[in-house]
Specification:
It is built from 6 helices and 14 strands. It is of the alpha/beta class.
């Protein structure tokens, strides 16, 4: 399994539009791994998690054929995770795309937003399916179990457990400290990879998003409960410029704990 990290920033991106904070100024000057677009991953070129407004840039930068995607999983409806307006580009009249339907999975709000953008002809190119927490779904490319997040009280935000070709991945953001039911469900898992977020850096709180301390506490829980395999990996992503941590700062924090810091374009083989 190849997990390709397309974007690794929170909503604002790094450097952020209009921002002149020291972190953004340094990111502009240093470039490289400090340049971050909105978060998404693609697995084996056929399974994508989230569809941010930077998806066109990701496809061009990393030479990705987005028309190879078979399944698209949506975590929640916030625009940095679902920019459904760009799904319209696959419709007849805008693109000469393949005939297969890309199957989109999400809770009711993301699916409704896709329907609103795609209109009555959506089924020409897409199949939209509502998923529910803890209900296993057999997709074309993988099996998934949606899990509750603690992110936005106005909608059902989801995390995902993903099984593909004998490998298991937990996609753990956007969320603060996970709901108790999610922790309980994870106790039965054996993970090859846990993808966590570290949006707020050293901030003391852990509501809606995770901090450095929350990530480290999550790692200890995964190990203590024997959820992470002996050779399993933890990767952090979804960073905000307001955390004021450059890539090298994040590596200095997490390397002693054997946690990898994702960067745009990073590929991880499991």
């Amino acid at each position: 399994m190849i997990v390709h990290f397309l974007g690794t920033a929170a909503f604002e991106g790094i450097p952020s539009l209009f921002c002149k904070c020291d972190t953004c100024q340094q990111a502009r000057a240093r470039g490289g791994k400090n340049i971050r677009t909105r978060t998404s991953v693609i697995i084996d070129e056929v399974l994508k998690v989230d569809f941010p407004p930077d998806s066109c840039h990701h496809a061009i930068r990393d030479q990705i054929d987005m028309d190879k995607i078979q399944d698209l999983i949506i975590t929640h409806s916030h625009s940095d995770h679902l920019y459904a307006e760009d799904l319209v580009i696959r419709m007849p009249g805008y693109a000469q795309s393949e005939e297969h339907q890309i199957q989109i999975y999400g809770h009711d709000m993301p699916i409704r937003h896709c329907i609103q953008q795609l209109g009555a002809n959506a089924l020409q190119k897409f199949k939209l399916q509502v998923v529910r927490p803890f209900e296993r779904v057999e997709m074309q490319t993988a099996n998934i179990v949606p899990l509750p997040a603690d992110h936005d009280k106005s909608e059902t935000c989801l995390l995902y457990y993903i099984e593909r070709n004998g490998k298991t991945v937990f996609y753990g953001h956007d969320s603060g400290w996970f709901p108790e039911a999610t922790w309980e469900w994870l106790k039965g898992c054996k993970l090859d990879l846990a993808i966590l977020e570290c949006t707020v850096g050293h901030a003391e709180y852990r509501n809606n998003h995770m901090s450095v301390d929350a990530v480290l506490e999550t790692r200890e829980w995964l190990l203590a409960n024997d959820v992470l395999k002996a050779d399993g990996k933890i990767v952090v992503t979804h960073f905000s410029h307001n955390a004021h941590l450059l890539h090298e700062d994040l590596e200095a924090i997490f390397a002693p704990h054997h946690i990898m810091v994702a960067y745009d374009g990073m590929k991880l083989e499991l």
